[in-house]
Specification:
67% of the residues lie in helices and 4% in strands. It is mainly α. The protein folds into two domains: 63 residues, Arc Repressor Mutant, subunit A (Orthogonal Bundle); 136 residues, Four Helix Bundle (Hemerythrin (Met), subunit A) (Up-down Bundle). Strands 1-3-2 form a three-stranded antiparallel beta sheet, covered by helices on one side. Strand 2 and strand 3 form a beta hairpin. The longest helix has 25 residues. It starts with a helix and ends in a 5-residue tail after the last helix.
């Protein structure tokens, strides 16, 4: 029997099924729970229980945990699975030593390379943080805070500096989330970014580095003060 050209060209009866990144979905939920403090430092990750709550098998939970281990949020323990990493004052200080130097360099480069419009837009970011400080959830405030600093890194125009800053964002986010309750007035906390934005708009390298150092040293003190060495 000869198949007609029309029959041969007929479309398939079924369309392909697009399977979502299940591991990525599990990873995102688990990361949010850690960064928001719902799963505390040192707490064990019980794969079977998480799989039951999420309605998935244990395999994507285990793979998501491995990804979060590579980001520095989880640690693996022989015969005990994964647990949320504990944090020490030394770890906070070590990270902030690197972060401060990266951001000081990034701000200086941003003053040289960014456009006037890009630098002026930083003040609008501060306005947004201040206006929404008391209405956003903690993790959303932390995200806005980090977005401000990430924007400075991007404006540096230096790909390697920006990538290094990006690589440490997850741990910085964790430290910020854990220490946010140690601050009083949330609007006042958001306003501490204002001198940085104004100095950037003036392309005043000395002023922006001074403001950034003061801001980041204060953040380091708040975070490290919560943990033992």
């Amino acid at each position: 029997m000869v198949t007609s050209r029309l029959e041969a060209a007929a479309p398939p009866a079924f369309s392909s099924i697009q399977v979502p990144d299940l591991v990525g979905v599990v990873e995102a939920q688990l990361q949010e729970a850690i960064l928001s403090g719902r799963i505390a430092p040192g707490e064990r990750i019980v794969e079977a229980e998480l799989a039951r709550q999420m309605g998935v098998s244990r395999a994507p939970v285990r793979e998501a945990a491995r990804r979060l281990e590579s980001l520095g949020l989880l640690v693996s323990r022989p015969r005990h699975g994964f647990a949320v990493r504990t944090v020490s004052a030394k770890q906070v200080n070590d990270l902030y030593e690197v972060r401060i130097q990266l951001e000081l360099l990034g701000a200086a480069l941003a003053c040289q390379h960014a456009s006037d419009a890009e630098l002026a837009a930083m003040d609008a970011r501060v306005n947004d943080m201040v206006e929404r400080a008391e209405t956003l959830a903690s993790q959303e405030r932390v995200a806005l805070d980090l977005d401000f600093h990430f924007a400075i890194s991007a404006l540096s125009g230096n790909h390697y500096l920006h990538r290094l800053f990006d690589n440490m964002q997850t741990e910085v986010r964790m430290f910020l989330a854990l220490s946010e309750d140690s601050y009083g007035d949330l609007k006042e906390l958001a306003e501490t970014h204002r001198p940085i934005a104004h100095a950037l708009a003036r392309r005043d390298v000395d002023a922006v580095q001074h403001a950034l150092r003061f801001h980041l040293e204060d953040a380091k003190a708040h975070a490290s003060g919560l943990f033992k060495n």
